[in-house]
Design a protein that fits this description.
Layout: H1 25-35, E1 43-46, H2 53-60, E2 65-69, H3 73-85, E3 92-95, H4 99-105, E4 111-116, H5 125-133, E5 138-149, E6 161-169, E7 172-179
Parallel strand pairs: 1-2, 1-4, 2-3, 4-5
Antiparallel strand pairs: 5-7, 6-7
């Protein structure tokens, strides 16, 4: 596994077998091709960071700040190892929390991207998207990206999110969601 583009391009990342399923190089390449230059100067939440590959790719491509999170101690340690391998010392924070605890703790600092890549066996997509849709740190331009196994049915979307695009890549699918603008009556 390696960084695809940006200033850390071609850097190899450490991985572990079994416990962590990193977003593949091909899926990350597709993701960042879709996002293009909107990554530059952006603020991210990588809620199930695993190896940190997606967030490190974003930093490599000019993101300003990544809030990494994973509930597993081994994953957070692997993330820190990969940040060190790339020489990335700033522009990030790492937390070890259950995703729902993390989402309850987020303050109102605006996020440009919320990346969600739960484990394949995760069964709470509906609850996850419902909670994300109610975050006060989402703004009109925020992109919420949910990566799932390609055969995982697309969950019913909460009132606060709308599906803008679905991209299938290998065994995965990327769902691009946007906050639904609230209209005052």
């Amino acid at each position: 596994m390696r960084i695809i583009g940006g200033k850390h391009r071609s850097r190899r990342l450490a991985t572990v077998r079994g416990e962590i399923r990193p977003t593949t190089d091909r899926a990350r390449e597709c993701l960042f091709n879709v996002l293009g230059t909107t990554v530059v100067g952006s603020v991210w939440l990588d809620a199930f960071c695993g190896t940190g590959a997606v967030g490190i790719e974003a930093l490599s491509r000019g993101a300003e700040f990544i809030n990494f999170n994973d509930r597993g101690f081994a994953a957070v340690q692997l993330l820190k190892k990969n940040l060190k391998l790339c020489g990335i010392e700033e522009g990030w924070e790492a937390q070890q929390k259950d995703v729902f605890t993390l989402l309850r703790s987020l303050e109102s600092s605006p996020l440009d991207f919320v990346f969600l890549d739960p484990p394949y066996l995760f069964k709470r997509h509906q609850k996850l998207l419902d909670r994300v849709s109610r975050l006060t740190c989402l703004k009109g331009e925020t992109q919420v990206i949910l990566e799932t196994f390609k055969k995982t049915p697309i969950p019913s979307l909460p009132e606060g999110l709308t599906l803008s695009r679905v991209v299938k890549v290998g065994d995965n699918q990327l769902l691009f969601l946007e906050p639904r603008l609230k209209v005052d009556s």
